[in-house]
Write a structure and sequence with these properties.
Elements lengths: L1 H22 L2 E7 L13 E6 L2 E5 L5 H7 L9 E3 L11 H7 L13 E5 L3 H11 L1 H9 L11 E5 L3 E6 L2 E8 L8 E8 L2 E5 L7 H7 L4 E9 L1 H6 L1 H7 L5 H11 L3 E10 L13 H6 L6 E3 L4 E5 L3 E4 L8
Parallel strand pairs: 3-4, 4-5, 5-6, 10-11, 11-12, 12-13
Antiparallel strand pairs: 1-2, 1-14, 2-3, 7-8, 8-9, 9-10, 14-15
The structure holds zinc ion (2 copies).
The site of one zinc ion (ZN) has 4 residues, from loops.
């Protein structure tokens, strides 16, 4: 009898554990892995983090709405956005996400304000956006469609380093990174869900503070920039830009100290400022990193998904997979 009872308990544990594991997993999708270049292959920087019923967006670069559309995620279901900094390549997708997201269509229907958290200036930027589009909002409110007024609002909130969001077991912590002496503050974000975590670097050169906050994380999504040596030799402008970012060799040093279960490159920036000197190839980024780092690493691609559960699994996008 006792044996039978134990067997039932074992079977129940066996059934429940995978379910608990699944409930604890974080799903991270790289919506855009590019930088300012208006590339068709790499849209502007934006990363979606899903956990339970939560859908959080980190940066909203060019094309964020199209990428959500490809995933069949209604824009109106994305109501919380975190900005790493206010450079245009990270923010030009905001008005599209905000305004297209409250149209009375199946992909819209946002009925609550879009909340935007970010560094100093975020609140001001959102208030200016609201001003810039006030006529559009008024036209649509007064027109057909019966759109809820609450869905027309975009609310910015300036935050400091520390815990900035906690909801449904998901915690988001902002930390200061180093995007040079002018763009201050610039943030990275750490997202914790149970004992899973993901860290998004934002734009930064190698940052001690990032290493501190990211130590031992499951998934580190880090920016990268490369330029050819001849460009760096000839162009002070290129040297100045590169100094605000992280080279593959520098990233290797960061990964070596953070020791993530997986490192993924995003904000893949292949720089040239001189039409006679071509940009380096994306295919060189991993080999250059490999010279100094032996751990798991992937070159990010738009719509690549990483599931952080008992294991960290990478899925490349296949159109049919989200239908
Ligand atoms: Zn950028
Ligand atoms: Zn930047």
């Amino acid at each position: 009898m006792i044996l039978k009872k134990n067997l039932v308990i074992f079977v129940l544990i066996g059934l429940l554990l995978p379910m608990l594991g699944a409930a604890q997993s974080l799903k991270v999708t790289l919506l855009g892995t590019g930088a300012p270049d208006p590339s068709i292959d790499r849209f502007g920087p934006s990363t979606l983090v899903e956990a339970g019923s939560e859908k959080l967006l980190f940066d909203a670069g060019r094309g964020v709405s199209q990428r959500l559309w490809q995933l069949h995620i209604p824009l109106g279901e994305v109501n919380v956005l975190f900005l790493t900094h206010l450079h245009s390549d990270h923010t030009v997708g905001i008005p599209d996400l905000w305004l297209t997201g409250w149209l009375p269509t199946p992909y819209g229907r946002r009925s609550v304000p879009l909340q935007v958290f970010g560094p100093d200036g975020t609140e001001e930027m959102m208030s200016f956006l609201a001003k810039a589009y006030q006529r559009d909002v008024r036209f649509r409110l007064e027109g057909p469609g019966h759109l809820p007024e609450t869905g027309t609002r975009v609310i910015g909130k300036d935050v400091n380093e520390g815990l900035v969001y906690e909801h449904n077991g998901l915690r988001v912590t902002a930390f200061v990174v180093d995007h040079g002496p002018i763009i201050r503050p610039a943030f990275g974000y750490r997202i914790d869900y149970g004992d899973r975590s993901v860290v998004i670097s934002g734009d930064t050169r190698p940052s001690e503070n990032l290493i501190k906050y990211a130590k031992g994380t499951d998934l580190l999504i880090h920016e990268v920039m490369a330029a050819r040596p001849e460009l760096l030799k000839n162009s002070a402008a290129a040297r100045g830009i590169v100094a605000l970012h992280t080279s593959p060799e520098e990233a290797a040093g960061v990964f070596e100290r953070v020791k993530p279960k997986l490192a993924v490159y995003t904000h893949v920036s292949l720089l040239t400022t001189d039409p006679t000197i071509p940009a380096p190839a994306a295919a060189d980024l991993i080999p250059r990193t490999r010279l100094l780092y032996a751990g798991p690493i992937e070159l990010g691609a738009d719509l690549m998904t990483v599931v952080v559960g008992d294991k960290v699994e990478v899925h490349r996008f296949a159109e049919a997979s989200r239908h």
